[in-house]
């Protein structure tokens, strides 16, 4: 899939912008704080309905009452136009001119994989980052997952409220807690089951890429780490196990005022040649495996929806060494429309720059640049 036009009004430091990206590589370069990431972020918001680095209000240009993003493009099923407007704490979604009431009808109309500096720490960072990694690829390719996750998060909020009341010694509705736990076991089991299925597909993809990145020296393995034992279980069995787990932790949860069990607590373990990269991997191995996971995500989405998503590389291109960069370029060349932000394109090979377009970003404006500038 490709995006052909991006229009922004009052989005961060862009008052008005109309941009026609190159079908392959797009280099956005310029000094710090000029709006390179803001533009990439707008493309992300068009796919996910919200940002990965700020709330809706922060996206609004200072002192402006509303912003609008419109992204036009083409996928296998035909052309698309997605529009998102935000003002007075409300969002309006349109897809191909039709108003959509829910974010879930808007998300995933085009697909993106984001690789930002924080993802270099994907393997070493907090479990929440690894869960986000899984959620992002599943939510945009599987509607059941997206809807179930939204319900799960809402139920969890209600349960946490009850548990806090219980911890404070206030009156709380024990029956409601049971009902919530039953629903959480139902939704949670769907989430865990779909995550396990996704990991089955991701594993061979990531293994192959890691082999290439390490010249055959390293075997990568992704393992789902969960609060309950569930190897080889069906979704029904997972639900039963989760329900049992919730019962056994009930008193503990009330004492601590928080939900201790379920997919919101799970994690991924990344291993190379059998050892945990998080605990024992070198910095280079941690970065390589993060790159392998991201490249595997591209292939996973291709496998699920039949075409490659867009790739958004925020400030990571210049962070990669020459070999890893070469493999990345080889992976995306001619297949994956990519937007790359970088402070300078001076050191990039002219042959690479010729595969795409370059724009200098300055104070929320863009200027077309000749290669090598
Ligand atoms: N809501 C907003 N309204 C207006 N301007 C904003 C808003 N949010 C951020 N900015 C401005 O956008 C600029 C930051 O843009 P961005 O994050 O895209 O930087 P960048 O060009 O990617 O820089 P770097 O190379 O440092 O990552 C800052 O100058 C900031 O003042």
TrEMBL record:
Any one Gene Ontology molecular-function term assigned to this protein's record: ATP hydrolysis activity
Keywords noted in UniProt: ATP-binding, Cytoplasm, DNA damage, DNA repair, DNA replication, DNA-binding, Nucleotide-binding, SOS response
Function: The RecF protein is involved in DNA metabolism; it is required for DNA replication and normal SOS inducibility. RecF binds preferentially to single-stranded, linear DNA. It also seems to bind ATP.
GO BP annotations, alphabetical order: DNA replication; DNA synthesis involved in DNA repair; double-strand break repair; SOS response
Family of this protein: Belongs to the RecF family.
Name listed for the protein in its UniProt record: DNA replication and repair protein RecF
Intracellular or extracellular location(s): Cytoplasm
NCBIfam families according to UniProt: recf (TIGR00611)
GO annotation, cellular component aspect: cytoplasm
Domain Rad50/SbcC-type AAA, first and last residues per copy: 5-217
Gene name of this polypeptide: recF
Binding sites annotated in the UniProt record for ATP: 30-37
Superkingdom, taxonomy of origin: Bacteria
């Amino acid at each position: 899939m490709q995006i052909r036009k991006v229009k922004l009004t009052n989005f961060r430091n862009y008052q008005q912008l109309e941009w026609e990206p190159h079908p392959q590589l797009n280099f956005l370069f310029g000094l710090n704080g000029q709006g390179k990431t803001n533009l990439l972020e707008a493309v992300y918001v068009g796919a996910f309905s919200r940002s990965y680095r700020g709330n809706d209000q922060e996206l609004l240009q200072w002192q402006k009452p509303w912003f609008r993003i419109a992204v036009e493009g083409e996928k296998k099923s035909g052309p698309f136009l997605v529009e998102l407007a935000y003002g007075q704490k409300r969002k309006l979604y349109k897809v191909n001119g039709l108003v959509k009431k829910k974010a879930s009808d808007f998300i995933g109309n085009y697909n993106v994989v984001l690789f930002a500096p924080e993802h270099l720490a994907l393997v070493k960072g907090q479990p929440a980052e690894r869960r986000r990694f899984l959620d992002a690829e599943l939510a945009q390719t599987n509607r059941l997952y997206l809807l179930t996750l939204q319900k799960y998060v809402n139920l969890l909020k209600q349960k946490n409220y009850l548990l806090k009341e219980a911890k404070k010694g206030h009156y709380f509705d024990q029956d409601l807690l049971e009902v919530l736990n039953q629903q959480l076991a139902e939704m949670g089991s769907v989430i865990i089951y779909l995550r396990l299925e996704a990991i089955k597909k991701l594993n061979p993809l990531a293994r192959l890429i890691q082999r290439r990145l390490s010249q055959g020296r390293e075997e990568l393995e992704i393992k789902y780490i969960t609060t309950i034992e569930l190897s080889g279980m069906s979704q029904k069995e997972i639900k039963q196990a989760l329900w049992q787990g919730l019962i056994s932790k009930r008193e503990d949860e009330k004492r601590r005022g928080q939900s201790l069990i379920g997919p919101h607590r799970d994690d991924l373990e990344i291993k190379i040649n059998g050892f945990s990269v998080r605990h024992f991997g070198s910095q280079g191995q941690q970065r390589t495996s993060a790159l392998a996971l991201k490249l595997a995500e591209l292939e996973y989405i291709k496998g699920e929806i039949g075409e490659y998503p867009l790739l958004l590389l925020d400030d990571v291109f210049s962070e990669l060494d020459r070999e890893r960069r070469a493999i990345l370029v080889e992976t995306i060349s001619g297949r994956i429309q990519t937007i790359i932000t970088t402070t300078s394109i001076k050191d990039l090979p002219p042959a690479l720059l010729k595969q795409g377009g370059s724009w200098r970003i300055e104070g929320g404006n863009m200027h077309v640049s000749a290669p090598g500038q």
